[in-house]
Amino acid sequence: MRKTSYVVTFVAVFIVLVVNILSARLPDWLVTTYEFDIPNATSTIRYGLMERCERSVVTIPGPSKGRFEYSDYQCRPFPLKVQDGCENGNRLACAEWVSAQYFTELGIGFAAMALVALLVGVSTHSRRRRVWRAVAGLVLLHAIFQLVTFVLVTELYSKNSFADFEHAKPGLGYVFNAVSWVAGFLVGSAVIVTGVAADRGHKWAAGNRAYHPIRD
Q1: DSSP states along 63-86
Q2: Whole-number Å distance between alpha carbons of 99 and 79
């Protein structure tokens, strides 16, 4: 493959990795908003892969069309054994959510390894001819693990596996995860197409130093 192709792939994989890391760290895969019986009082609960954050806001009208606002913001690890019922009826749901955490971390690791492979692969022409297979495999593994995470969270969300999921809506972290695995499959497929074309001697993929097998 041409060195330019590897540079473009490196940039694409780096962007996918950043989006993936953001999706894993953002505490808003699923978002639920409640209105209390008290006027002007709301509570917003955000679920991330690793924590649950709740923000409660109470607004009290004041003099001269002013207002007083009280807010409280607290985060805790999610899921927890007692609070989230992981020792009772929600044992399977908790196990699936924790598995989603592990899968997304594995995906991040494979994307990082793909970047290292790209840096090593561009050092010599002979390595550039071979390393695209490793890069494609690592990028596709990244996408597969992110897709598994997406499927697990979507299943738990659709089944209302936790109490607050009934009124939840997908948030930014959920969207970022979808973007990361879709982009991962596209990048991995593009590397395979370009690499195969380069091995077959197509100039657009291999450049001026295209590899042509020696025939007897």
Answers
A1: GGG-EEEEEEEEEEESS-TTTTTT
A2: 11
Q: What is the pLDDT of residues 127-179, one digit of tens each?
A: 666 788 899 999 999 999 999 999 999 999 988 888 778 888 999 999 999 99
Burial of 214 (0-12, 13-18, 19+ CB in 10 A): exposed
Angle at 29 between CA 168 and CA 156, to 5 degrees: 60
- Distance CA(210)–CA(200), nearest Å, equals 8
Q: Which helix (H) or strand (E) holds 112?
A: helix 91-121
| Model pTM score | 0.82
Give the C-alpha distances (Å, rounded to integers) separating 35 from 48, 53, 60, 74, 181: 21, 17, 15, 18, 35
Query: What is the CA angle 189-11-191, rounded to 5?
Result: 20
